[in-house]
Amino acid sequence: MRLGPRHPVLLWRRGSLRRQLLLLLVPALAAMMAIDTWLSYGTLRDAANRAYDRSLYGSIRTIDNAIGMAGESIQLTLPDAAMEMFESAAQTHVYYRVSLERAGKVETITGYDDLPLPAGDLVNNTPRFYDTQYLGEAVRIGVMARPVYRPDARMRVIIQVAETAEPRSALIATVWRSALARDLLLILLSAAILVGGVTYVLRPLRRVRDDVEARSPDDLAPLAFERVPSEVRPLVDAVNLHVSRSAAMAQSQAQFIADAAHQLRTPLAILKTQAEYAQRQLRDPDPEAARRAAGEAVGGIVTQLEQAARLTNQLLALARVRQHHGENAQEADAIDIIDAVAVAEQVALDYLPLARGKQQDFGWEPVPGLKLPVRADPALLREALANLVHNAIQYSPRGSRITLSATRDDETACLIVEDDGPGIPAGEREKVFARFYRRVGNAEPGSGLGLAISREMASRFGGTVELGDGAQGVGVRAVLKLPVGD
Predict the structure, then answer these.
(1) Whole-prediction pTM value?
(2) Domain named Histidine kinase: which ranges (predicted)?
(3) Which one of 62, 153, 373, 411 has the largest count of C-beta atoms within 10 Å of its C-beta?
């Protein structure tokens, strides 16, 4: 499948932890700084308004203190300095208005009579501040109303002082720009610290990389690094686990090659010798003698081929069980549950002709209704049980009795192979489980792998193989035990 072109940002960040962290964290930092700047702007605006509003309120109080009553009229006596402040046209434009509210009507006493009043009712002696437009400029107005304190007076004075919003806006903009520049500097410093921190923290990984690159191809020793970050340690542990599995597999393959080379050397040499013997006999001038000698050599070749084929199968089975021996519990739980009784019945059918060929009484004793559910691979379990049956047939003399049976002992499934052959002394019963072990004086052909394979395969599924005396202390009783599956 052909992939389309990727976004340049995705291509840029791929393969670099620093770049990915920058792309993730810098926008997040910028968003946080933007929120902080916005909140700071609101706080700054409120603080500036409070400061300037206090100034407006001070002007209102100054005018209020200068108001007096002259009969039925209001008299305003402001100091000259105050008047100059209100009437100046400097950087800040200041406007004022003093009005008299009587019977719901407002009339201007002095000041700018078109200075707008706020919407809604005014509360006596409570200052109020609001923003509006006046003479084409944005202004901030402070207003306060107070009643006229005289008998039967139903009127009140309204004092308004306004100033243009430009000074406070300039102050807010100046401070806000400084805060924005500070936040941008913090973002840059944070990005630099992030890059430097990641570079410093990832130094142990560089040492791991250098160590792996410097290794030879056959060096499968685990990585030994203690000073790695805890977040990276699972990765190193996983690599070590993979290396250990590879080492076990390589060791198993090397062992298989060594076993095969050791065990197949003799059969191949015998085959070569017998083939050369048959070739020489065919040159005999006597045709009948040549045919008879060549037939004997070919018979020997067939026998050796059969033994070599079984040895090869046993070596492959041993390599297979070793390959799966290191699987963890989770992989073991994934194995299906099978009926061990069905596997035993099949083994009995497969080996019945071999027992009849040696004129042995080989039988399968089924238990009606017995089921032995076990968690095992059917092919491996069959190989393990088949090796026990084959050993009993091979090492028991003609006319012997061999019995294959199955039973359940609490939570253990037992597959039993019992014969009345020569038996195995108690002192050698553990030795015969060693690979290629051959009892002294045993003339029967074999490789000494059958019992070793059976025990290793049983161990693969949590079981074991035990040897004991047969019935009445004669022969061998081999028991393959496996835990009953759920």
Answers:
(1) 0.45
(2) 259-486
(3) 62
CA distances from 215 to 201, 245, 477 (A): 24, 17, 51
Copy the structure tokens of residue 177.
Answer: 């720009």
What is the tens place of the pLDDT at every residue in 58-102?
888 888 888 876 666 667 766 655 555 554 444 578 888 998 888
For the chain, the average pLDDT equals 76
C-alpha closest to that of 256 among 174, 179, 318? 318
Residues 9, 15, 16, CA angle at the centre, nearest 5°? 80
Calculate helix-pair angle for 166-201, 17-65, nearest 10 degrees. 160
CA atoms of 129 and 141, how far apart (whole Å): 6
Pair type for strands 373-375 and 73-76: unpaired
Q: Closest by alpha carbon to 420, among 468, 474, 467?
A: 474
Residue 64 CA to residue 419 CA, distance in Å, equals 126
Q: At what angle do helices 287-323 and 450-460 cross, to 10 degrees?
A: 20
